[in-house]
Write a structure and sequence with these properties.
By secondary structure, this protein is of the alpha+beta class. The protein contains 29 helices and 39 strands. It is found in: Endoplasmic reticulum.
C-alpha cells in the first residue's frame, strides 16, 4: 500500500501543480489584462447609474423641454428674448431634444445583462411620449400631437446641430426599433417588423400593423415619419448658388431671413431680372457664414433617410454640400473653418482638425463605410420639393460612390499630416493650427473637439499615430481632470481663458475606438479615470453639470444633450466588450453625435455591388490596417510600456503637478441622492507619477525606460540694418509659392532643422534647415524663400559662415529665349539634307518684347534637395513682374514690335571625370525680361548648331568657329568620343563655348517618371461655383526628367580628332526631356547659363532658400 501510495504521490505531484496553475490561470490572465471581469462589470454598472441619474432627472425636471439645468433643477429653454444668443438657440429647437438624443443610448443599454429591461422600458416610453407630444408629422390625424404637428415650431435653429442631434437621433432609434440594429433579446415578428420598416404601406392590408410593445404602444414607423418631417423643414437651407447650405433655418418658416435664397425670389422678378421687387429682409442682415463641418457633415443622416424612404433627394443634397466644400480646398489640400454659403469664399484662413472642421474628415471616411452597401434611390417626383429638382445638375456616379469619399479622406489626411502634424523629431506628436493657404503655423493650441481624431485614425487603421496623439490628450485630462476647451501646447497653459469642459464625448469616443482596435487594458483605465473624475466633480442632485473651470471645479448649470447621447454611451460600450454592437460584422457607423446608423442589408442588391465595383479600380487604396502592438511582457500594457510615454506627460507638464492629497469623503453605495463613492474615486494609486491616474502599478513595467526626447535644432539669423535703407513692409513680397525678400537690412530669419534633403546623385540623405519665420511672418512647410542674386553677392559677404553661398558643382540651368517658330533657318539634322552639313547661320537680334510677355518653366534650386529642384514658372512670372515694376523706363512710348518669345530654363547636369571642363566665364543669365536696351536682357550666345549623336562623323572647324552652342543627342558612343569628333579651334568670341547633350532616356512614356503634380479632381456639379484652386502649369519634360539625370562621365582627357590633347577644353552639360527639349533648343534664339547656389548656415544647407 505504501508503495502504491508513494507511486501515486509521485505521479500526482506534477498533476497537482498543473491543477494549481490551471485554477490560477484565469486570475493571472485577468491581471495580465490589467482589469478583472468583475472590475469591468462594476465600471459598466457605475456608467449605467450615471446615465440614469441624468436621464431620470431630465424627465422629472425638464421634459418636455430641450435640456436640463442640473444645479437649479429646472428646464433649459430657448432664449426668445435674445435671438442673438446662438449658443442656446442654435441647439434648442423646443422639441424635447435630450429625449431624442438619448433614445439610441437607451436602445444600446437595453442589451445590458443587468439593467437591460429598465433601459428597454425607458426606450419604449420615450418613443410613446414623443409621438404623444408631436404626432408623427404626417398630414392625417396621426400627425398631430399635443404640442405640435411634428416639428412645426417657430424656432430658428442651426442646420448642423439639428441634423446630427434631432434627425440622427430619430433615425437611429427607428433602426433599433424595427430590429435593423441588434438589441439583445429583442426579436419582433417578421410581419410586424416589415410593416414598421416600410415607408410606403400601400401594399399591406388593413389588418396589418406594426410592432406591439409591452407598454401597449404599436410602433409602425412613427420615428421615421417624424424624421422626414424634420428633414423637410431643414431642406430650404440647401438651395443656394454654391450648394453650401445656409447655417440656420426656421422650422416653421424656412429661410425668409436670407435675402438671396432662390426660395425668396419672386418668379416675376426672376424672369425680368428686376431685383427691386424681390423680398427684402428687415433689420440686421443674417449671417451667411457656416463652417466646413456644418456644411459637409450631413451625408450619413441624409443618406440613411433617403435609403429608408426611397427618396434620394436628401442624400443628393447632402453629398452636394460635401463636394461643394471639398472643391474649395486650398492648393495644398486643406479646408478652412469658416466659409460663406452664398459666395463660397473662406471667411477665415485658420485651419486645423478641431472646431469648425472636425466632422468633415470624420464623414469623409465614415461615408465610405456606410455607402459600401445599399442602393441609391431616385428623388420622389411626388414630393412638394420636386419643383426644385432641376435647380442643380445631378451629381455624377463617381461623386455618389463610396470610393470617392475614401479618396477625400486619404488626400485630406495626407495634407493634414504634412502641414499640421508635428510628429517625429518633436517632443511628442501633436497638431497645430495652421494657415489654410500656406500651412504656416498660426497657433499652438489644441481644442477639446480635436480629441476625436485619434479615434478616427484608429477606425481607419492608423494605430501608431492614433496612440501617440491620444497619449497627449490622456496626459492633459490627467492634469486637469477634464479637457479644457483650449490648451496651449507651447505654453502648457489654458488658451484664452477657455477653461470649461461641458461634458464633451470626443476623448472617451477615441478611447473606445482605440480599445476596440487594440484590446489594450490601458484604455479601460483611461475610461475608468474619466468616469471617476465625472462622478467626483460633476454630480449634482438633479443631474450632471459641466465644468465651467477645470482648474477649480466651478460648475455650469447645463447638462448638454450629448452627455447622455454620446459620453455615457461610449463609456458604456467601452465597459461592455461583448455588446452586440461590439461584435456586429456589418458596415454600420456612429454619427458625429454618436448615433449608430446603417443601411439595412435588405435594401442592398446586385446593382449596388456592381456600381461599387465600377469605381474600385487600380487607383483605389488597398491599404491594410496596422497590427496592434503586442505587450512587452505578461501583465504589461503595450501602451504603458511605450518608450515615449513620458514625452506626452512632459509636454502636458504632469511632472510639475503637486502630488494628490489623501482620500476624502465617505465610502457610499449608489443612491438617488448621491453617486456611489469608493476609495478609487478619490485617491490616485500613482500620484501623477504615471497616467492615467487610475493606472494600477502592475501595468507599469518594472524596468521601463523613456527614450530621449528629441528636439529640433533651431537657429535665428539677424541681419544688420543697412545704411540708407529703411526696413518696412515693402521688404517682403508674398509670391505664389513663398516670400520674396527685396531688402535684407534688419531682417530676421528663424529656422528649424527638419527638412529631409536627398542627393539625387549619391542617394544620401541629410536634414537641412527650413526658414519657418521671416520677421513675424510664419511660413508653411512647403513655402520657399527667394533672395536675389544681387543682394546675396553685392550686399552680403558670401563667405559668412552663418550665411554662406555655395555654388552647385553638379547642375546648372540653361536659359533660352524661345520663339513660337524658328526666326531663322537652321541646319537640318533629321535627314533633310546632308548630315552634319554646315548651314549659313547668322546671329539674329531679338525682337523687341513687351513687359507682358510670359516666362516659362524656371528652375533655380540646389540639386541636393529634391524639394528645391523646380521653381514654378508662375512664381518666376510674378518675380519678373516685380523686377519690371522696379526697372526704369526709358520712354513712355509702347514698343511697335512685339514678340511672343518666352524665356525658359532647362536644368542640366555637369560632367565629371578626367575630361570635364569648367563652365565658360560668362555672367549668370537673368530669368526675367528687362527693357529692350537693357544689357541684362541679353543672353550670352546666339548661334547654335544641331547634330545627331556625333559618333560616326566629325564636326568641321568651320562649324565650331562660327557657332557658340552645339546641341548633340545622347547615345551611340561615349561622351568622350563625341567631344573627340569636334575639330580643334582657336578660341574667339564667335567660336564654340558650350556643348549641350540631350538625353532621351526619360520620355513621357517611362512608367518610372513622376506623374503630373496636379491631379484631376473629382467632377463637381456645374451649378456649383468653381474651385478657387488654380492648377499648376504643366512642367517641361526636362524638368520632369531632372530627378533621374546623371552626370556625364568623361573617362579620358579631352582629345582632338587627331589624337592630340586639347589645349582649349570644351564645356559640356546634359539635359533631359528627349525630343521636347531638342525641339525647344531648335527654336531658341539665344542661350545663356545660370549657376545654382545653395545657402548654408554653419555647414547645414537651408533647403527652402533660393537664390534668383
Amino acid at each position: 500500500m505504501r508503495a502504491r501510495c508513494w507511486c501515486l504521490q509521485m505521479m500526482s505531484a506534477p498533476w497537482t501543480a498543473w491543477i494549481f496553475w490551471l485554477l490560477l490561470l484565469p486570475s493571472w490572465i485577468s491581471m495580465a489584462g490589467g482589469m478583472t471581469l468583475n472590475q469591468i462589470n462594476d465600471l459598466r454598472t457605475d456608467t449605467e447609474h450615471m446615465f440614469y441619474h441624468g436621464f431620470n432627472n431630465y424627465m422629472k425636471h425638464a421634459f418636455p423641454e430641450d435640456e436640463l439645468r442640473p444645479l437649479t433643477c429646472r428646464p433649459l429653454v430657448r432664449d426668445r428674448a435674445n435671438p442673438a444668443h446662438i449658443e442656446l438657440n442654435d441647439v434648442l429647437g423646443n422639441y424635447s431634444l435630450t429625449l431624442i438624443d438619448s433614445l439610441s443610448s437607451l436602445a444600446i443599454m437595453s442589451s445590458s445583462n443587468d439593467s437591460g429591461a429598465i433601459a428597454w422600458a425607458h426606450f419604449q416610453a420615450g418613443v410613446k411620449d414623443l409621438v404623444r407630444l408631436y404626432g408623427d408629422g404626417s398630414e392625417g390625424p396621426a400627425g398631430q400631437g399635443e404640442r405640435a404637428r411634428g416639428f412645426d415650431m417657430d424656432s430658428k435653429v442651426q442646420v448642423f446641430e439639428t441634423v446630427i442631434r434631432g434627425l440622427g437621433g430619430l433615425l437611429s432609434a427607428h433602426i433599433f426599433a424595427v430590429g435593423d440594429l441588434p438589441i439583445r433579446g429583442y426579436h419582433p415578428l417578421d410581419t410586424e417588423a416589415a410593416f414598421a420598416q416600410a415607408w410606403d404601406k400601400g401594399s399591406f392590408s388593413e389588418h396589418d400593423h406594426g410592432i406591439q410593445w409591452e407598454n401597449g404602444f404599436v410602433y409602425d414607423g412613427q420615428l421615421l415619419r417624424l424624421a422626414v418631417d424634420l428633414a423637410n423643414r431643414i431642406l430650404p437651407a440647401f438651395y443656394t448658388e454654391t450648394a453650401i447650405p445656409y447655417p440656420r433655418v426656421n422650422l416653421r418658416y424656412g429661410v425668409p431671413f436670407y435675402e438671396n435664397s432662390p426660395l425668396n425670389l419672386d418668379p416675376v422678378c426672376e424672369k425680368t431680372g428686376d431685383r427691386s421687387c424681390q423680398k427684402r429682409r428687415q433689420g440686421i442682415p443674417e449671417i451667411t457664414e457656416t463652417c466646413s463641418a456644418g456644411a459637409g457633415s450631413l451625408v450619413l443622416e441624409f443618406t440613411v433617410l433617403s435609403r429608408l424612404t426611397g427618396d434620394g433627394r436628401y442624400e443628393e443634397l447632402a453629398k452636394r454640400a460635401f463636394w461643394a466644400v471639398w472643391a474649395r480646398r486650398s492648393d495644398i489640400g486643406l479646408i478652412g473653418s469658416g466659409i460663406d454659403a452664398e459666395s463660397g469664399k473662406w471667411v477665415h484662413s485658420y485651419t486645423g482638425i478641431g472646431a469648425g472642421i472636425d466632422s468633415f474628415f470624420e464623414y469623409a471616411f465614415k461615408s465610405h463605410i456606410l455607402l459600401s452597401s445599399g442602393d441609391r434611390s431616385p428623388s420622389n417626383s411626388e414630393s412638394p420639393w420636386s419643383i426644385w429638382d432641376n435647380y442643380y445638375i445631378p451629381l455624377s456616379e463617381y461623386e455618389h460612390s463610396a470610393d470617392a469619399f475614401l479618396h477625400v479622406w486619404e488626400e485630406s489626411q495626407a495634407s493634414i499630416k504634412h502641414h499640421l502634424y508635428r510628429g517625429e523629431g518633436y517632443q511628442h506628436p501633436h497638431f497645430i493650427q495652421g494657415d489654410l493657404f500656406t500651412g504656416a503655423t498660426r497657433a499652438f493650441w489644441m481644442d477639446s473637439l480635436s480629441a476625436y481624431y485619434p479615434g478616427l485614425l484608429a477606425l481607419a487603421g492608423e494605430l501608431e499615430d492614433a496612440t501617440g496623439i491620444h497619449l497627449l490628450t490622456t496626459a492633459v485630462w490627467t492634469r486637469f481632470a477634464g479637457l479644457p476647451e483650449r490648451w496651449n501646447v507651447a505654453t502648457g497653459d489654458i488658451e484664452g481663458g477657455l477653461t470649461w469642459w461641458g461634458g464633451r464625448p470626443e476623448f472617451i469616443e477615441s478611447t473606445y475606438y482605440l480599445y476596440r482596435a487594440t484590446k489594450d487594458p490601458w484604455y479601460l483605465h483611461v475610461g475608468e479615470m474619466v468616469l471617476r473624475d465625472i462622478k467626483r466633480r460633476c454630480w449634482t442632485k438633479c443631474g450632471w453639470a459641466g465644468l465651467q473651470d477645470v482648474r477649480n471645479g466651478e460648475l455650469s448649470d447645463r447638462m448638454e444633450s450629448f452627455f447622455l447621447g454620446e459620453t455615457a454611451k461610449y463609456l458604456f460600450l467601452l465597459f461592455d466588450p461583448s455588446h452586440p454592437l461590439n461584435t456586429l460584422d456589418a458596415p454600420f457607423v456612429f454619427s458625429t453625435e454618436g448615433h449608430p446608423l446603417i443601411v439595412p442589408k435588405r435594401l442592398s442588391s446586385d446593382r449596388s455591388r456592381r456600381s461599387r465595383e465600377k469605381f474600385s479600380d487600380e487607383n483605389t487604396s488597398q491599404a491594410t490596417c496596422q497590427i496592434p502592438p503586442l505587450p512587452s511582457g505578461l501583465g504589461v500594457s503595450s501602451t504603458a510600456a511605450r518608450p515615449d510615454i513620458f514625452h506626452a506627460a512632459s509636454l502636458a507638464r504632469l511632472h510639475l503637478m503637486p502630488g494628490r492629497g489623501g482620500a476624502e469623503g465617505a465610502l457610499l453605495d449608489y443612491a438617488y441622492d448621491h453617486p456611489s463613492v469608493s476609495l478609487a474615486d478619490l485617491q490616485s494609486p500613482s500620484n501623477y507619477t504615471f497616467y492615467p491616474w487610475t493606472l494600477p502599478p502592475e501595468l507599469v513595467p518594472s524596468n521601463g525606460m523613456s527614450s530621449p526626447m528629441t528636439t529640433r535644432p533651431t537657429l535665428d539669423i539677424s541681419f544688420p540694418a543697412l545704411p540708407g535703407v529703411v526696413a518696412g513692409p515693402g521688404s517682403l513680397e508674398r509670391v505664389r509659392e513663398g516670400i520674396l525678400i527685396k531688402n535684407i537690412g534688419g531682417l530676421r530669419l528663424s529656422m528649424i532643422q527638419d527638412l529631409l534633403l536627398l542627393s539625387s546623385f549619391d542617394g544620401t540623405t541629410t536634414e537641412g534647415f527650413r526658414v519657418q519665420v521671416i520677421n513675424s511672418v510664419p511660413l508653411g512647410k512647403d513655402e520657399k524663400v527667394y533672395l536675389s542674386h544681387e543682394v546675396t553677392f553685392e550686399v552680403l559677404d558670401p563667405t559668412d559662415p552663418n550665411f554662406t553661398c555655395v555654388r552647385d558643382s553638379n547642375i546648372v540651368d540653361i536659359v533660352v529665349d524661345v520663339g513660337p517658330e524658328p526666326f531663322r533657318k537652321v541646319n537640318d539634322s533629321h535627314g533633310h539634307g546632308e548630315k552634319g552639313a554646315v548651314a549659313g547661320l547668322e546671329s539674329t537680334q531679338q525682337q523687341s518684347m513687351t513687359f507682358d510677355d510670359k516666362i516659362g518653366g524656371i528652375t533655380s534650386a540646389p540639386s541636393s534637395s529634391s524639394s528645391m529642384r523646380t521653381v514654378l514658372s508662375s512664381l518666376m512670372s510674378h518675380v519678373s513682374s516685380l523686377l519690371r515694376d522696379e526697372s526704369p523706363s526709358g520712354s513712355t512710348k509702347s514698343p511697335k514690335k512685339t514678340s511672343s518669345s518666352s524665356r525658359l530654363v532647362i536644368p542640366a547636369t555637369l560632367p565629371t571625370g578626367l575630361g570635364s571642363a569648367p563652365l565658360p566665364d560668362v555672367p549668370d543669365a537673368s530669368v526675367a525680361f528687362f527693357p529692350r536696351d537693357s544689357p541684362a536682357r541679353r543672353l550670352s550666345w546666339s548661334t547654335i548648331f544641331f547634330v545627331d549623336e556625333l559618333c560616326d562623323e566629325r564636326l568641321p572647324k568651320e562649324v565650331v568657329q562660327t557657332h557658340q552652342v552645339l546641341v548633340i543627342k545622347r547615345g551611340g558612343c561615349s561622351f568622350s568620343q563625341k567631344l573627340k569628333n569636334i575639330a580643334a579651334y582657336p578660341p574667339s568670341r564667335s567660336a564654340l563655348k558650350l556643348v549641350i547633350v540631350v538625353s532621351y532616356d526619360d520620355d513621357d512614356d517611362d512608367p518610372d517618371l513622376p506623374v503630373a503634380a496636379a491631379q484631376k479632381d473629382p467632377p463637381i456639379d456645374s451649378t456649383q461655383s468653381k474651385s478657387p484652386r488654380s492648377s499648376t502649369p504643366q512642367q517641361l519634360a526636362a524638368h520632369r526628367a531632372e530627378p533621374y539625370l546623371v552626370r556625364p562621365y568623361l573617362d579620358e582627357p579631352q582629345m582632338t580628332t587627331g589624337g592630340i590633347p586639347r589645349h582649349h577644353l570644351i564645356s559640356m552639360a546634359m539635359a533631359g526631356g528627349g525630343e521636347e527639349t531638342y525641339e525647344l533648343l531648335r527654336r531658341a534664339t539665344s542661350v545663356g547659363i545660370k549657376r545654382r547656389y545653395t545657402v548654408h548656415s554653419q555647414g547645414v544647407p537651408i533647403n527652402n532658400l533660393f537664390i534668383i
